[in-house]
Write a structure and sequence with these properties.
heterodimer, A: mainly alpha, flat, B: alpha/beta, D-Maltodextrin-Binding Protein, domain 2, 2 domains, 5-stranded mixed sheet
Chain lengths: ~325, ~450
């Protein structure tokens, strides 16, 4: 690399291709314009609204950070945020399952394509439709109860899946895991497929078993996709909405997540300023969690990264 | 950005002035007669919530076109109407809509005046609901009287010979249903949400016997949810629900109730009672083979020996201020036709809007019961109740479904007694009164 002389700055300056610049600017204008119009302008508006006491039709004036203070004063909202923990626990299970199936299906199992399709299918179904499916799924004496009875659970010992507050949030989390597991799996399969197959061969020759291969080759190989999935799942848990809104009757019976509270605040109570402030808090939380995760995994993955590199080097030296 | 905004505003205002000038030529609802101006041509978009009545409404359009062949009306029926309409109200993608919760002083911003309250009040029922400063902006689609739906056959089988008139009698009747029949005594429709908010409709006239209570006294009331001790007032309304849940007189799994399914259950006699407005009556009748079994009674609260039924307009129709003059005029004709000629209120079991209209049979059990419409808010306080509703987050009779659902949850789980719930509501209400500096009487 270093042998090739880099053009000097002066040389480079001369080489500015105006046609190219014009092309870049023209092509990026439309997407940038849309991005600014539909993402950044509304966002800054939201920041502004969060400082006002206002409804959709009326602005009652500037209140500073009062809206924010109110959020933290009410246990109701803290409780709603804590509901995310259910969904986070679900996200961990979901990723583990997805990874398990992805590894299994990548090992060239018979009928893998069919299984992939079956597993991915829920993700294609509209969230509202899933909501209605699960509403009937959990209704007393319907699908779930019938299946469990067939296995041998007596009906009277089964909980009311949505009524009992000790299980209803888990019921909702399950719908979310059911929907997104397949999508995570497909992403993992894609990542696993990009790993050089010669590495497995080399590892087998080295005497590594399947678990060791998984730990030393697959896991480090799909690190980036894994991180991405994890961050998306965890931040998704923080803003969980669909299951609780559709299956949980709009967040009734102690299933109202923070996102649902925001929705109610804006659309039922007509407090748009307050709702914007809540949305800001949610965004801050999501950013915080993302940073925390990155830091955590930078620390944890360091090790496995080295293992991967050394293994890779080993593999290379073998050849 | 600001410059563009102010330019747009200026143009809007100019246009507004222009339309104001021509608005003088636009007649009011009482001045037009059906059958005139039959060559009027316009395309109207009608935003409304009755998704279950699409065929019927589109049939009306065909009927109407026999008089006005060049007026074309497209119904835009939306399920989550209340929220949807609130977002659309300021746009021009509708011509007629059911007026959502808009502050009274802002009605003129979105809707054209239909005429003076004084004149229209003499011709139609419930005109004051969407009026401001003596001008009407909305015409009710139909009128509802609020009571309780019940299944006559189930009541007979349970041995209830006289309709319950007080909360105690009502709970006793529910118990009789539970003991003597297989029917669910009281079906809450918890999961649908809005069916729970429907309980708020009884805390005014039905619970107090006063037409001024809801809009005029409630905003200034000190602790409105306190126990009055005589089985009246808002406390008594919600207490019925709490007690019914506590005594096990509701459906087994309230979290999976099914609104569409419940109609057939009511018709077949699997449900004894449901607390819903009279508009639901015909839907229950149509849902099965026993329409004759469906009955309607007044809410079981008696004030000084008398029962009262709150009556009022359903959604009010308003006409978009941004529509063209032809569209506005066409919309006026259609609204007039709907009210006088369509027979909508009668077939829907509603209280007629046209003062000369006929009452359907379902109000037979309302003989001797006073039907009162809530008086509008006092001048200068038109927006007060909305503001209190928003500030307190109780949203009384304005989509506050969650708080009523919570009554059921607490009653069922036994984790909060009823007085504590009411105390919380009182606190929320007085905090809101304090925040808005409302005089408490």
């Amino acid at each position: 690399m270093n042998n090739i002389a880099a053009p000097s700055l002066a040389q480079r300056k001369k080489k500015i291709n105006w046609q190219k610049v014009l092309l870049i600017v023209t092509f990026s204008f439309v997407p940038l314009f849309l991005l600014i119009l539909f993402t950044y302008v509304p966002f800054f508006k939201m920041v502004k609204f969060s400082l006002y006491d206002m409804s959709y039709t009326k602005n009652k004036g500037y209140v500073g950070f009062n809206n924010y203070l109110k959020i933290f004063k009410k246990d109701e909202y803290i409780g709603a945020m804590l509901l995310s923990l259910y969904y986070m626990a679900g996200a961990v299970v979901q990723l583990a399952l997805a990874l398990f199936f992805a590894t299994l299906l990548s090992s060239g199992i018979k009928g893998g394509g069919l299984f992939k399709g079956i597993m991915f299918f829920p993700f294609l179904v509209n969230g509202i439709a899933i909501g209605y499916i699960f509403k009937f799924f959990y209704t007393r004496g319907f699908v779930l109860d019938t299946v469990l009875q067939a296995i041998g659970f007596p009906l009277e010992k089964l909980p009311y899946w949505l009524r009992d507050q000790s299980v209803n949030n888990w019921s909702l989390v399950f719908t979310s895991v059911w929907k997104y597991c397949g999508q995570n799996m497909v992403l993992f399969i894609g990542a696993i497929a990009s790993i050089d197959p010669t590495l497995y061969e080399a590892a087998t020759i080295d005497g590594a078993n399947k678990w060791q291969q998984f730990k030393a080759i697959i896991l480090p190989g799909i690190k980036t996709v894994f991180m991405l999935n994890l961050i998306l799942s965890i931040t998704g848990s923080l803003s969980a909405f669909e299951p609780a809104y559709v299956v949980g009757s709009m967040g009734a019976n102690g299933t109202a997540t923070f996102f649902i509270k925001i929705h109610q605040m804006a659309h039922v109570n007509n407090k748009v300023g307050m709702a914007c402030a809540m949305a800001m808090v949610l965004m801050a939380l999501i950013i915080l969690f993302t940073i925390a995760q990155r830091l955590f995994f930078r620390y944890v993955m360091k090790d496995s990264d080295n293992t991967f590199n050394s293994k890779a080097n080993k593999a290379k030296t073998l050849w | 950005m600001k410059k563009i905004l102010s330019l747009v505003l200026a143009v809007c205002m100019l246009l507004g002035l222009a339309s104001f000038a021509s608005a003088e030529e636009l007649p009011t609802l009482d001045q037009i007669t059906l059958g005139e101006n039959t060559d009027l041509a316009a395309d109207l978009v009608f935003a409304y919530h009755r998704t279950d009545r699409r065929e019927m409404l589109e049939g009306y359009v065909k009927e109407f076109q026999k008089i006005y062949p060049n007026i074309n009306i497209t119904y835009d029926l939306v399920t989550d109407y209340a929220e949807n309409a609130l977002l659309r109200v300021g746009t021009d993608n509708w011509t007629i809509m059911g007026i959502p919760t808009v502050d009274k002083d802002e009605l003129s911003k979105y809707f054209i005046p239909l005429g003076s309250l004084e004149t229209l009040d003499g011709l139609y029922n419930f005109m004051s609901a969407q009026a401001y400063d003596g001008v009407c902006y909305g015409l009710p689609s139909t009128g509802n009287a609020n009571g309780v739906l019940y299944n006559k056959a189930v009541f007979e089988k349970a041995g209830i010979t006289e309709l319950p008139k007080t909360p105690d009698e009502f709970i006793a009747a529910l118990k009789a249903v539970k003991e003597n029949t297989d029917a669910i005594p009281l079906y809450t429709n918890y999961a649908a949400g809005w069916t729970m908010g429907a309980w708020d409709a009884y805390i005014g006239v039905a619970a107090t016997g006063s037409a001024t209570y809801f809009n005029q006294e409630l905003p200034h009331a000190k602790d409105p949810f306190a126990n009055r001790g005589d089985g009246t007032g808002p406390y008594a309304v919600y207490k019925i629900l709490y007690d019914a849940v506590k005594e096990g007189l509701i459906e087994e799994d309230y979290t999976t109730t099914d609104w569409e399914g419940c109609k057939g259950m009511m018709n077949r006699g699997e449900i004894a009672t449901m607390v819903l407005g009279s508009w639901a009556f015909t839907q229950m009748q149509e849902a099965g083979d026993h329409p004759e079994d469906i009955g309607y009674m007044a809410f079981p609260i008696t004030i000084d020996g008398k029962q009262y039924a709150p009556a009022g307009g359903d959604y009010n129709f308003g006409i978009n201020v941004q529509a063209t003059d032809d569209q506005k005029l066409a919309a006026l004709y259609y609204l007039k036709w709907l009210t006088h000629e369509s027979g909508f209120t009668f077939s829907e079991g509603g209280v007629p809007i046209d003062k000369n209209g006929a009452y359907p049979d379902l109000y037979a059990a309302f003989a001797g019961i006073d039907m009162l419409a809530d008086e509008p808010a006092l001048p200068g306080e038109e927006t007060l109740l909305n503001e209190l509703n928003s500030e307190s987050e109780l949203a009384l009779n304005a989509g506050g479904n969650t708080k009523v659902q919570e009554i059921i949850e607490h009653a069922f789980n036994g984790d909060k007694d009823f007085d504590a719930i009411m105390a919380d509501w009182n606190e929320a209400w007085s905090d809101a009164q304090e925040a808005l500096k409302v005089e408490v009487k």
